[in-house]
Structure formats: structure tokens, C-alpha cells
Amino acid sequence: MVDEPIVVAEALRKRFGATRALDGLDLSVPAGTVCGLLGPNGAGKTTAVRILATLADADSGHARIAGHDVAREPDRVRARIGLAGQYAAVDEKLTGRGNLRLFGRLYHLSRADARRRADELLERFGLLDAADRPVSGYSGGMRRRLDLVASLILRPQVLFLDEPTTGLDPRSRGEIWDSVRELVADGTTVLLTTQYLDEADRLADDIAVVDHGRVIATGTPDQLKASIGDRLDVVLADPAAAPGAVTVLHRLAGAYPALEGDRLSVALASGTVRITDVVRELDRAGVAVGDVGLRRPTLDEVFLRLTGRPAKAGTDDETGPAGDRDAGRREEVVR
Ligand SMILES: Nc1ncnc2c1ncn2[C@@H]1O[C@H](COP(=O)(O)OP(=O)(O)O)[C@@H](O)[C@H]1O
Ligand SMILES: [Mg+2]
User: What CATH architecture is 229-296?
Assistant: First the structure.
């Protein structure tokens, strides 16, 4: 038990009517690491987090946090976890400081301890400037940060972040990422769900790709990228030469390249084709190129390869509360 990962899920299943939200989900997160649960809208991420956080029961399977079964010892689990999500749970009318003090009291801290902890967290996470303004004037990013900070009041060993940056602008996303890195430096284990491939890439030590309620691939970001080989990118000097270039690349790579504007991109098994051969063959076919390069694939390309579908972030989430304040401000940040 000593070396058991701090978060373990085994064959979790959960149905909602005919929908299999979880269909045998396995997960294991070593203490002190960030695990990215990466999947498109509807993949089952929130359902998994809710079960792990004792907010919902699985139909079957088991899950343990720090060795404690989530179904049989929910209180022990709750004492060790924090949860922050896509829908900030903070009170609009209170100030940032007021919210944190209130949460502290709700968690049964003494008045003095609640104050102290609120001050500590505001300072630590760069919210002091806004601490005494009502949350109603906060930006979406600041609200989300405050929500995240509120989940830290009891110093959880394991923090669940359910799509912490969905709908935020790039700058606010960066601020949340910085906060997550702060936490990890403290030794907190983080299970982060995301639809954003770059987010998992930046924050996670390990990624579990979830699709249709199960984990379809796991690995470090680099391992996932390596598992699908290199990408060959060719930028054409003249887009009219695309058909000729497609023929050449198909012959060399054994697959049809994707064409976007003047750029062609195709997967290559690592080490099978040399750039010089590509340039020579294109030249022989009369295709003038602006640029040719080999690179590791993006996680978007990994997802496409694993599932046959792009991992495009959904713009809405049926499972959120109806009165979601940020709904109108959401913007697509996945390219
Ligand atoms: N309370 C619920 N009632 C009915 N269906 C649900 C409920 N919660 C989730 N689902 C369905 O289960 C599937 C997984 O949902 P969810 O875990 O929210 O996915 P994700 O968080 O990855 O977007 C979806 O098809 C969703 O519509
Ligand atoms: Mg969700």
C-alpha cells in the first residue's frame, strides 16, 4: 500500500440511462505529479472527477485516494481532496477576501484561522490587489483563480481541477497555469481535466487520453507524440503545385498529406524518410517549395490519430448549471 499511487481508479463504470459516461475507466496518479485527463466534450472527464471526489457513485469499479476507498470511506477521502471547476463557486456580492474567509468558516476553521489562511492564499496567488473588491467586478480569469484558491484552504493532498481554463482568454489561462505550477511545487498532486491539448502538454507529467468513458492512451506528452512518429511539413512556393506535391508525399510517406492553404503535412514513421530525399523528389516533380521540415506531432495530431477525430473543444457543456455566468464570454482557444 505504501507505494500505491495517490489516485487510483479501476474499471469505473457509470451509466446515465442509455449513455455510458464511464465504460471501464482506469487511472493511476503517483503522488506529487500532475495527471492530465485529456478528452473532448462528453468523454466522461467530469463524471470521473465527481466519482473520485465522492460527489457521485460509480455503478461498478473501485477508486481510492491515498489508499481510501471513495465509496466506503468518503469522509477520509474528502479530508484529503480539493475540487475546483469550470463553474466558479464564489459569491458575487462578497469580496475575494470575504469569499475565502467564508469558505474557511464553512470548512470549520476558527475565525482567526480563516482570516489568516485567506490572507496567506491571497498573497501567495497574486490576488492581494483585488482582495477587497467585490467579485462581481472580477474578470472571468480572476474568478476562476479565486475559485481555485478557495479549494486550497484545507491544504488538500490531491486537487481536482475540472477544465480550469475552459472559456478563458489566453492571458487568464496563463495565470491559472502559473497557479497550478505553484501548487505542484508545494507537493500537491493534481488531476486536471482538459479539452486543451496544449494545456495538458504544458502542465501534465502524464496524460491519460479519454474517449467514450475509457482511457485510450497514456504516457508523457513526449511519449504520446513519439508514438505516432514525426510529421513532415512542406510549405509550397506556389499553392497551385499542391496536386503534384500530394502525389510525391503520398509515395514517400505511404499516406495522403493534409493540405491547409500552402502547407502540406503528413506522418512519417520516425527515421524512414530523409528531408534531402523529400526535397529532391519534389524538385524532380517540378514542385517549388518554400520550406520543408520534420517535427514532432502536436497533441491535436496525436488525438486525431488515436481516435480518428480531431479533439476540437466543444463550445458548450450540457452538464454545467443553467445559469453559467461565463457562457457568453467563452471563446475558442484551441487552434
Ligand atoms: N447527470 C447526467 N445525466 C445524464 N447524462 C449525463 C449526466 N452527466 C453526464 N452525462 C453524460 O455522460 C457523458 C459524459 O459526460 P461528462 O462526464 O460530463 O463528460 P466531459 O466532462 O468529458 O465533457 C456525456 O454523454 C454526458 O451527456
Ligand atoms: Mg466536463
Answer: 2-Layer Sandwich (3.30)
CA-162 nearest atom, ligand 1? 21
The candidate with the shortest Cα–Cα distance to 214, out of 297, 307, 320, is: 307
> In terms of Cα–Cα distance, which of 107, 100, 27, 113 is closest to 36?
27
The answer to whether 25 touches 9, Cβ cutoff 8 Å, is yes
User: Which residue's CA is the closest to the ligand 1 atom numbered 14?
Assistant: 44
Mean pLDDT computed over every residue of the chain: 88
Contact 14, 47 (CB under 8 A): yes
Cβ contacts of 70-74, under 8 Å, gap ≥ 24:
none
The bound ligand whose nearest atom lies closest to the alpha carbon of 318 is 1
Cα 53 to its chain centre, rounded Å, is: 17
Instruction: Let me know: does 303 contact 310? Beta carbons within 8 Å.
Output: yes
Domains of the chain, residue spans: 7-224+311-334, 229-296
pTM, two decimals, is 0.81
CA distances from 180 to 17, 89, 163 (A): 36, 18, 12
> What pLDDT is attached to residue 301?
80
72 burial (CB, 10 Å; 0-12 / 13-18 / 19+) is exposed
pLDDT band at 97 (very low <50, low <70, confident <90, very high): very high
In the predicted model, what is the mean pLDDT of residues 271-300?
A: 89
Q: Which residue has the higher pLDDT, 209 or 316?
A: 209
CATH of 7-224+311-334, one of 3.40.50.2300, 3.40.50.300, 3.30.420.40, 3.40.50.280: 3.40.50.300
pLDDT score for 12: 98
Q: What would the grid cell of residue 335 be?
A: 487552434
* Mutational test site, ligand 1, from 23, 47, 166, 307, max ligand atoms within 8 Å of CB: 47
| DSSP result, 271-301 | TSS-HHHHHHHHHHTT--EEEEEEEPPPHHH
CA 44 to ligand 1: nearest atom: 17
Closest CA to 180 of 167, 197, 192: 192
